Amino acid sequence: MTKVIRKYKTWLLAIFGIFLMVTFLFSGPTNPFMPDPRKRVTGTLSGEKVRVSDLAAANTELQLLRGTAPELLNSLNIEEDDPMHWFMLMREATRMGLVGTYKEGVTYVSRVAETRIPAMVFSELREQYPQFPPSFLEQLTMNQVQNMPPAERAERIASITTKLEAELPPSNTLNYQELGNALARLRGVERMMTGYIAAARMSDKRLVSVARDFEDVTLADIAFVKATQFVDDSLTFTEEQIAAQWEKYKNTAPGAATAENPFGFGYIQPPRVKFEYITLERAAIENAITLDPVDINKQWQLNRAKFPGDFATERPRIERELRMQRADTIMLDAERAYQAAVRSSVRGIEIVDGVKRLPADWASRAPSLQSLAESIAAGVKASAKLSITTPVVTSRTSNWTRVSDAANTAGIGNAGYSSGASNFGLSDLLAGTYELSDSTLLGVQKGVAFEGVLKDQSSNAYFFLVTDVRKTGPADTLDEVRDQIVTDLRQQAAYEALASRIEGYRAQVATEGLDATIKAINTSMPAGRAALDSSVLRSQQFSRKGGGSYTEVSDPQPLRDAITAAGSQLGLAAANDANLATRAVAVALPADRVIALSQVVGVSPVTVERMRRLDARLAQNLAASQLGLTRDSSPFTLANMKKRLQWTPEGDEQESSEQASR
Question: I want to staple 266 with a disulfide (CB 3.0 to 4.6 A). Which of 78, 252, 347, 588 is the partner?
Fold first, then answer.
């Protein structure tokens, strides 16, 4: 054997070498010779290398915080999708010595709990007032949270903290320490940010000057006279006038008042949809149920503890309970029948990234909502042996419905769809339509019936289909906004007539007083508009940079300027008939199509005593207001931190950064 090896050793070495080369070509270098990808440098911060492992650890920690303290991350404007932002923030906080141990992080749970109070209040209000739109409930939530008594706030924090602590990993595990460390770093980042804002200091003179802008108060009675009170509903316009208004403002967003567009006209439309929906009334199901007398008696006999009275007395209760139980089953059968029909219609259709790729002939193949309603009735008959009237189909396809206004739709507008721990209203679902949001999260897609079921407080069920959508943009045709244009032109005419009398109104306030003037204006209104009567708001507070926040006014600054100027003329003199002319104010607000009439009743200036009693937090807020911080100008945004810390990407990061800049 050794003779053979010695004889052919050259050939054997050649064959072995070729084998190694081929193996290398197919499998690449073996692990011992490969560089660790986690050690790859992605860039430098202030000249220090940042490796892939650093960002990976930051991303893991960020995901952990996203699940534990999402509200706090949002309030601190931390980019949840970019670990680089979190890495830089916690790196700076750590270097400043603001990060404690994991034990301190665990105690930070109470701060996390405090940030969840608004969500808790909103959820309670939504359950209590399902008929109100989310925007109104959000404003109500903000008011309740701001004015919440300290005792109630402390009680809510304690309740949420208890729940959060129950969800924490066991204290003797590594996960517990990891979460504690993440929360400790988050606390350090918050300290860094709040410390920057609180660091602002002003001299005594500057503080007094700034305090006067907010605390030098003019007290005034005020009333708003709206153009809508005097609109002439019989006023007509030529087709040319309507078309000219449309052409001038069709590409303008409404409400943005400018010198060229003082009334804020605009006909850019918000996201809107056309849709249909099925209403399955639970009461109709219950009324269609016929109970077997034998089952009623059997239920009474088997549940004597629950129904202790004689059969005749307990029968109505037993029937009600059996009817409700049977209705629950039938409603569930109806939902299954609907969902089976929807799934059957899309079987075989390709789904890519959650989006159904509908064929070209889908419009002719897709089941109508009427046919799906008939499937519900057929499914109930087959499963429950009960004949019900085919559920009613309501069509909202003749006109566009704004997504924000969908909650006002009768019936389905008050219903909600539950998915896990989340509840979505009709407006939420329509806003999540794939063609509007580019998201498949909610599973709503144009042309395909939504599989989910919406239910209202009466347990009625609703099923809907989006037939068409439009993103924010100009209206398709003039006819779509014709009514709005006519309304705007009528209000403009009414406002211009009102504004032409503004000096007369101011003179009337100066001689007769505000109450008499408003009474005369209300008397002069067209008949049948008593609900629009102006009313006087008493002793409203205005300062140069505060007050004047009313639903009738979009920009309160002109109002503040006029009223505080009148207050300056009055000075410390007592308000009386002799200085009534000095105290009379009239302000035209064309953007809101409103005239504000006011009468100054007194002035409350900043005094030495008030400055001495000035709350430390208020003084700090006044100082911080001089920083002029916005979301973009904050030194802690991702872009500003990269610039300040001299972030220099390397390799692939540098190429992608250069492409983004181009």
Answer: 252
The closest alpha carbon to 553, from 595, 503, 514, 584, belongs to: 595
User: Exposed, middle or buried: residue 367 (CB in 10 Å: 0-12, 13-18, 19+)?
Assistant: middle
Does residue 397 contact residue 274 with C-beta atoms inside 8 Å? Answer: yes
- As separate numbers, helices (DSSP H) first and strands (DSSP E) second, the chain gives 29, 18
pLDDT in tens, 148-197: 888 888 888 888 888 877 776 776 665 778 888 888 898 899 889 888 77
Please report which helix (H) or strand (E) contains residue 324, including its range: helix 311-346
Three-state secondary-structure class, residue 19: helix
Give the chain's length.
662
Rounded to 5 degrees, φ, ψ at 50 are -115, 120
Distances in whole angstroms, Cα of residue 259 to Cα of each of 262, 413, 591? 5, 39, 10
How far apart (Å, rounded) are the C-alpha atoms in residues 108 and 186?
A: 9
The whole-angstrom separation of Cα 270 and Cα 402 is 7
Model pTM above 0.85: no
CA dist., res. 480 & res. 651, Å (int)? 53
- By the 8 A CB rule, do 103 and 180 touch? yes
Cross-strand pairs, 419: 422
Q: Which two tokens stand for residue 585?
A: 């104010």
Query: Which of 486, 513, 509, 499 has the alpha carbon at shortest distance from 589?
Result: 499
Query: Pick the residue with more confidence: 142 or 29?
Result: 142
605-619 in b/e burial notation, b at 16+ Cβ within 10 A?
Answer: ebeeeeeeebeeeeb
CA 158/CA 166 separation, integer angstroms: 12
The Cα 609–Cα 490 span in angstroms is 52
Q: Dihedral sign, CA of 489, 491, 497, 500?
A: negative
φ, ψ of residue 280 in degrees (nearest 5):
-110, 105
User: For the stretch 329-360, what's the b/e string if a residue is b when 16 or more beta carbons lie within 10 angstroms of its beta carbon?
Assistant: ebbebbbebbbebbeebbeeeeeeeeebebee
Contacts of 429 (CB under 8 A, 6+ apart): 417, 442, 444, 450, 452, 454, 464
First vs last C-alpha separation in the chain: 69
- Residue 190 amino acid letter: E
For 87-151, give the DSSP string. HHHHHHHHHTT----HHHHHHTHHHHHHHTHHHHHHHHHHHH-TTS-HHHHHHHHHHHHHT--HH
| CA distances, 8 to each of 1, 17, 18, 61, 292 (Å) | 11, 14, 16, 61, 98
Positive or negative, the CA dihedral 261, 262, 267, 268 is positive
> Residue 653: pLDDT above 70?
no
pLDDT tens track for 354-366:
899 999 999 888 9
**Among 525, 529, 494, 499, CA closest to 597:** 499
d(CA 617, CA 634): 21
* C-beta of residue 444 within 8 angstroms of C-beta of residue 434: yes
